[in-house]
Amino acid sequence: MCVPPVVCPIEALDPDLAQRELFKQMPTLELDVTFPLRNFLTEISPNDAMFDNSAHYVNVGLSALRVLEYAIARQLIAPSGPQRILDLPCGHGRCGRVLRSRFPQAELTVCDIDRDGVDFCASRLNATGVYSSRDFDKLDLQCSYELIWVSSLITHLNSRYTVKFIKRMEGRLSEEGLLVLSNHGQFAVDRIVAEEYLYGLNTTSLECLVEQYNLLGYGYVDYDGVEGYGVSLISRHWLEGLFSDGQCMIADYLEHELDNHHDVIFVKKRAVVNVSTPDPSDALV
Ligand SMILES: C[S@@+](CC[C@H](N)C(=O)[O-])C[C@H]1O[C@@H](n2cnc3c(N)ncnc32)[C@H](O)[C@@H]1O
Question: Whose CA is nearest to atom 16 of ligand 1?
Fold first, then answer.
């Protein structure tokens, strides 16, 4: 009798081998000779949901770099560079690898709810990893940061979570620090209205999203079947209102800048004006 060969899944033979096989299938990033950064991580995690192709992935990084250089030129970041950086959400390091190469001396903290992303970034980018939580009050961040980089997070949150998150980040910003947030602004709205890009949403959700945006300046809908995570559209006006008082203010705002798509908001601590009590002896007689 002929016994058919037993076909074992590769994981059963050697889980590490399975992982290595997966890594072999992942491309490494192709960098042009003009690529400006040194010691840039080219490895892509097999679990990187943001990876589509090398050229676009690298371009997003270059666009993040332009935002950072702009902030330095505008003295929103000290020319010596930030000492402590927080990349939240880090994903699998699409922007974190730029932060690491551009500021090699900085202490980098990477944070995401995706633990695999945190582990990947921490191990490859010489960074401290922090696992995030759905509840931003439970975020375990111990120190303050000179640069907090937030690409593509509030783009997925409802207004309540966005406000909570921003307040939490304000509390983690050093006195001279810079908080950088990316946002779906008017450009994203125009793309939806022109039916150029639909953000993975159906027609009903898109209509609801744009209607809320037009009425309130903040539109949000959940992704299909997901509660509390979806797509937001936030007007510049709404954000200006949010930062109109309180400890931080919008220092600069660039429209559809990151990846030629997201608006970028630069947030700084408001300067504390010291109003000292006048000395009565100074009074003119
Ligand atoms: C569109 S990706 C952007 C990732 C990265 N910033 C980039 O540009 O490649 C959104 C990320 O937000 C993360 N995320 C969602 N909710 C989060 C939370 N409560 N805390 C931290 N990260 C969260 C997701 O896991 C995902 O990695």
Answer: 113
**Substitution site in 114, 140, 168, 199 for ligand 1 pocket (most atoms within 8 Å of beta carbon):** 114
Please name the amino acid found at residue 22.
Answer: L
Please state the φ and ψ torsions of residue 66, each to the nearest 5 degrees.
Answer: -60, -40
Residue position matching structure tokens 């307040």? 167
**Residue burial 177-203, b: 16+ Cβ < 10 Å; e: rest:** bbbbbbbbbbebbebbeeeeeebebee
Structural domain count, the chain: 1
Question: Does residue 192 belong to any structural domain of this protein?
Answer: no
Has residue 218 been placed in a domain? no
Residue type, 244: S
**Does residue 23 fall inside a structural domain?**
yes
Ligand 1 pocket, residue 50 CB under 6 Å: yes
- Specify the higher pLDDT residue, 63 or 10: 63
76: closest CA among 173, 203, 9? 173
Alpha helices per DSSP H over 129-235: 159-170, 186-193, 203-216
Per residue in 44-83, pLDDT (tens digit) is 999 999 999 999 999 999 999 999 999 999 999 998 999 9
Per-residue model confidence (pLDDT) at position 1: 42
Q: Domain of 59: which CATH number?
A: 3.40.50.150
Secondary structure (3-state) at 268: strand
Ligand 1 pocket member 94 (CB < 6 A):
yes
Using the structure block, give the residue that is written with the tokens 């439970």.
Answer: 138
Domain that holds residue 253: 15-182+235-270
pLDDT in tens, 137-195: 999 898 999 999 999 999 999 999 999 999 999 999 999 999 999 999 999 999 999 99
Nearest CA to ligand 1 atom 27: 91
Residue 86 lies inside a defined structural domain of this protein? yes
